[in-house]
Amino acid sequence: MSGIKVLQLGKKDWSRMYSLPEIIDFQYATVFDEKPSKPYDIVFLDRTPLEEEIGPLHKACKAYTLFITERVELKGNVMWLYKSRKGRRIASHAVEQFLNQEARNYFPRPYGEKFQFKNLSISQNFTGCVRWYGNHSVCLQGEYGTKLSQIAFWRNNIPVFQGQAIDLWLEYKKDDAVSIALTVTQFVQGSISDVQQKWEFSEEELERVVRIDNGLPDGLIFVSLQASGEGELQIIALHDRYSRRGHGHFLPGGERYVTSDREEIFCYFDPGDMKPPLNVYFSGYKTMEGFEGYNLMRSMGSPFLLIAEARLEGGCFYLGSAEYERILKKAVYRYMAELGFRSEQVIFSGLSMGTFGALYYGCDIRPHALILGKPLASIGDIAANERLLRPGGFPTSLDVVRYLGGNMERKTLEEMNDRLWNKFDRTDWNRTKFIVSYMIEDDYDPTAYKMLISRLQSEDAQLYGKGIHGRHNDNTGAIVQWFSGQFEKILWEDFRRKAEG
What we know:
The protein has 501 residues and is an alpha/beta fold.
């Protein structure tokens, strides 16, 4: 695990007072008035900063990582710094304990993934019906016995390092007559038979994220699912993520929302300088779970909200049940309300799969602008193109349609297209700007840009775009360059602010 960079501003050097773990890269400063090259992972203030230190400290500190002691006086710009960095108080007597026990959870590089679906195996002892649904789930129907016994397991064990905690989240559905449990076994490094330790999680515990905390040497873990009873059991996904032990999901301060169907939505809010606009960024397709666009959005200097999901293989276009979509919209409104911003002080953005989220929920928020790179809008067409235009290029699109629509019939494909366009057509887009970079020979959704032009009927709406030759994934670099350039342009022209870089 990477070293954790800690800055302390004060009159006494804590590194001379306390015994610090080796993982901490500690820097003490009596004065801090120059912009750092990179932000620190944790910043402690043990005295009230001077006026000339406020700006450099704001750039040195990431949201949710600022801690102040009772020696800091909260007023004026110090209060602004505290609020804009989502600061927290810490008592002087608790500092050493925090550095030794909690600081390890502020590691700089988050990681999350899904146990690969192709590595899921069903027990040979199970004699019931087994149905596989693409890369989404496997459905078991039958008898599992009167006592809990292994019904499935995941091949290809994953490493867990000494001192590391891993969060596990199991997505499943089942009949009430079926009981389940999850067992995690860690083997001694280099062995496939010597058990180092074992964790067992009951069905009640699996209602929440469960955690394994490894205080022993490095070792691979093997995960298996037990079942008993009779009926249907649908195994959807098992997620593993580097745990921050309650200090946030993926990033410090990252929030997780979950529906009654165990579907997750992740949000990360950074207040920036608390001045308009709020930049909302929807992550694109990604098999490594977590937030996308952090460095780009942070470089803009203004408040930003990152939104991500981890369904299917890399995402499900942010579409779901009424509950799912209500939770996502409510989250955006919540952060707008916290800042006191109106819809005309919000920008929605995204790349590829993220553009669908920006467009779909943009219909509800009606932001000042939508900045889109490689737009995807007609989900049914994207799936249909997998057969001839893009064979084997994006099979997840088939899972998306089957999952959301129930089948792959032509009528269902058209209904999936209408999920966005019917909503788009009912929206008053007056005073909204659409800024789009698209691939001219796009093999995912070739008509997205043309459809935007033809269906945008509001008189005061603006749309302009830039086409780049190639298929959907041929020149992402050029798309991102234009995307970020347009972001900076609209921030300056419409909000009179420059990106901080």
